[in-house]
Amino acid sequence: MPEEEFEVTPWDVEGNVDYHRLIEKFGTEKVDEELKNRIVENAGENHLYLKRDFIFSHRDMDKVLEDYEEGEDFFLYTGIGPSGKMHIGHIISFYITKWIQQQFDVNVYIQVTDDEKHWDRGMSFEEIEENAEHNIREIAAVGFDPDKTFIFRNREYMGNMYDAAVKIAGKINNSTAQSVFGFEGSTNIGMNFWPAIQCLPTFFEDKRCLIPAAIDQDPYWRIQRDIAEKFGHEKTAAIHSKFIPALTGPEGKMSSSKPKTAIMLDDSAEEIEEKVKKYAFSGGGDTLEEHRKEGADLSVDVSYLWLHSLLLEDDERMKEIAEKYSSGEMLTGEIKQVLIDELTEFLSEHQERKENADRLVEKMMYEGELAQRMWDKKITL
Amino acid sequence: MPEEEFEVTPWDVEGNVDYHRLIEKFGTEKVDEELKNRIVENAGENHLYLKRDFIFSHRDMDKVLEDYEEGEDFFLYTGIGPSGKMHIGHIISFYITKWIQQQFDVNVYIQVTDDEKHWDRGMSFEEIEENAEHNIREIAAVGFDPDKTFIFRNREYMGNMYDAAVKIAGKINNSTAQSVFGFEGSTNIGMNFWPAIQCLPTFFEDKRCLIPAAIDQDPYWRIQRDIAEKFGHEKTAAIHSKFIPALTGPEGKMSSSKPKTAIMLDDSAEEIEEKVKKYAFSGGGDTLEEHRKEGADLSVDVSYLWLHSLLLEDDERMKEIAEKYSSGEMLTGEIKQVLIDELTEFLSEHQERKENADRLVEKMMYEGELAQRMWDKKITL
C-alpha cells in the first residue's frame, strides 16, 4: 500500500492515517481551539487527550455543550468487543469517558458485544465469556461512578432491549449495511443485523448521547444519525480519538494477538521494560553519531508519540523532551526509559484498582443504582 | 399469469398451484399410501386432512415414525404471524397439530411472530399486540393440552432464546437468505435476520422436530435442515398442507383483509350463510338447464373443495355429494347449504371453546407445566 493510501473501517486500520483527510472522508468536524476551550470551561479542567489533540474530531459536541450550558443533561455510551485481553489502546476511550462522567456528573453505558464477536470472528461463547469477564474487570478498574454506570453483556441484556432492536432493524436496510460496512453475500445474517444492536444504547435515555470512541467506529453513529429523529430522539454526538500506533511502529493498530505490538493491561513492570526496550520503534538515528547530528524524527517515534498523546501530563517536560530528542541531545534509550516509567506508573495504578474491582463489577452490572434501574426497565422506542 | 404458471413463497401464493410440481420444485416427498397407513397405525385413528390428501407432502415424516416405533419421542412446532384476525385457513395447521399432539402425546411449541410482522409489513407494535392477543385466544380454543403446549411471543421470549438466535444467525449468510427468500437491498436487516428466529424453535428440545404447516413455509425448514447437524441436532421433519382456496375461487389464498374471500373464525352463523351464498365460487352450470345436463366442475367448486378437504368427515356422504353434484342432480344452492351447515357447526364449537379460553391462554403461555419449564430455561445450542 503506497504511503498516502489508508483504509479505516470498524474492523481494520491500515496504512499511515491522515487525520485531516479522515475528517473530510467521514464528514465529521475538527475539534478546534474554540471547542476545546468550551469543553475545558464546562468541565472545569483540561484533559491530556484534549490538549494534545488525541481527540481530534467530533459530531455535535458543540450541541452537547450548548445543552449542558442551558442545564440539559446528556449521557455517555461506549463499549468493548470481548475478542481477547485488553491492551493499552483499548482502555483509552474508557479513561476519557470516565473523565467526562466525573466532570459532568452523567450516566455511562458500556456495551459488551458478546454477540458480535461470535458473528464477526466465529469465536465460541466460552472464549468470548472468558474474555468478557477479564475485560469487564479492566473497565471497572478505570474508576467509573458505580451508581451511574451500567456495564451489560448483550446476550444477557437482550431480553430488556429486543423491542428496541426490532424497531431499529426495521429502519436500516441491507443496502445501507452493505455500503456503510461493506457487508457481502458471505457475511452472516447476524453480522448484517449487528448495526441495529450497536446503535441501540444511544436510545437508552431520552437525552442526547455522547460517544467517545476511536474514529473507526463512526460509521455506526452515521447510521444512528440517519434514523434517530424517526424515533423522536436526538442524533447521537461523538468525539473521535486517533489510533495509538503499535509499539513496533506507527503503521496500523496494536493487536492483542501480536504481543510485540502492544503493551497489555496486565503486563508486569518487567514485561513493560523488556517490550519497550526490545520493540518500541525508534525515530532516532541509526548510529549515535547520526543521531547526535540529525536528531530523532518525532513523527514516527513510538515512545515520543505514546508519551505525547497518552501519558505525560507535564507540558514543560513534554516540550523539553521534544526539543532535546529531536535535536539529538536526548538518546532513544533515554526517552524509552521515560516511557517505561510512565507506563509502569499508569499500569501499576490501574492494576491495583483492578485487584479490588469485584465489588465494582457487581455494582456496575447488577446492583448499582443505574444498573438496577436498567434491569427493571424495558427499552422502548 | 398463464394457467400453468404459479409462484409459491412464504409471502405469496399466486396462480393455480400444481402440487405435484411443487413437490419436485421444493424437493420434498409425496405423502403416499404407505406413509398414510403408517401414520394411521401409530396414531390409532385416521384424520380427515390425511385421508383427503390435504396433507400431501413431507420431509422425514418416515423418520419421525421410525423413531416413534422404537420408543423415541418427537415434538411439534408451528406458528402464527399476527397480521390480523384469523380466517379458517389460518387455523388448519393448528387443528392437525392438535390431533398429532393428542394421538402421540407430545409437546407443542407455537411461535407468535410479533417481531417479523413489524419487519415484514412495518405494522406498529400496538396493532401487532392486538392481533396477537386475538390470535392466541383462537389458538388456545383449538384444544391443545395446556400442560404440554407453549405459546410464546418472540418479543417477550427473546431473552430466553437470544443465545440460540446468535448461533443460528452465525450459520446463515446473506446469499442464502437472498436466494431462498428473495431478500434484496431494500429489505430491512430485521427481515434479513428473521430466518434465524423462525428456525429457532426446531432446537427447543434435543429430539426430532415435526412441523405441520402449509408448503409455502418450507424454505425456512430447508435452511434449518442445512444447519441442524452443525449443532448436533436432527434435521427438522415437516408435513405440508395444500392451500385452501379463497371463497371467491380456487386461485390464490384467502385473505383477512379481503372479507369476501374468507370465512373469519369469529363470523356468526348469519355472516357465514350470507358469505357462502353470495361469494362461494361455484363450479355448477350457468343455467339450471346447463347444470342438469353438464353437472358441476368439482375441481373449481369452492363448496365442494372446502367440504372435501376440511370439513365433511363422512366418507359415504362425501362420495354421494361428489356423484350427485358432478352429475347435475345436486344443485349449487344445495351444496352451499351443506357447506353452511358444516362451517356453522365447526365454528360454533370453536367459538364456544374460545369463550372459555382465558385460563387456557394463561396456562399455555405462562403457567402450564411446559410453559413454566420454558420460562425457567435458556435455549442453548
Folded structure, characterized:
Two copies of one chain form a homodimer. Chain A is 52% helix and 13% strand. Chain A is an alpha/beta fold. The first copy, chain A, folds into two domains: 7-247, HUPs (Rossmann fold, 3-Layer(aba) Sandwich), CATH 3.40.50; 259-354, Tyrosyl-Transfer RNA Synthetase (Orthogonal Bundle). In chain A, helix 5 links the parallel strand 5 and strand 6 (108-112). In chain A, helix 8 crosses helix 10 (189-199) and helix 12 runs antiparallel to helix 16. The N and C termini of chain A lie far apart (44 Å). The relative contact order of chain A is 0.14. The interface between A and B is medium-sized, with 34 and 34 residues.
CATH architecture classification name of the largest domain in chain A: 3-Layer(aba) Sandwich
Per CATH, the class of the largest domain in chain A reads Alpha Beta
Largest sheet of chain A: 7 strands, mixed
Counted by DSSP, the helix tally of chain A is: 18
Largest interface: A-B, 34 and 34 residues
Our count of domains of chain A comes out at 2
Average pLDDT level of chain A: 94
* Oligomerization category of the chains in this entry: homodimer
Q: How far do the termini of chain A sit from each other?
A: 44 Å
Q: Going across the major beta sheet of chain A, what is the strand order?
A: 3-4-9-8-5-6-7
Radius of gyration of chain A: 21 Å
CATH fold label of the largest domain in chain A? Rossmann fold
Provide the CATH superfamily of the largest domain in chain A.
HUPs
Helix content range of chain A:
40-55%
Query: Shape of chain A, please?
Result: globular
What would you call the structural class of chain A?
Answer: alpha/beta
- Low-confidence parts of chain A: none
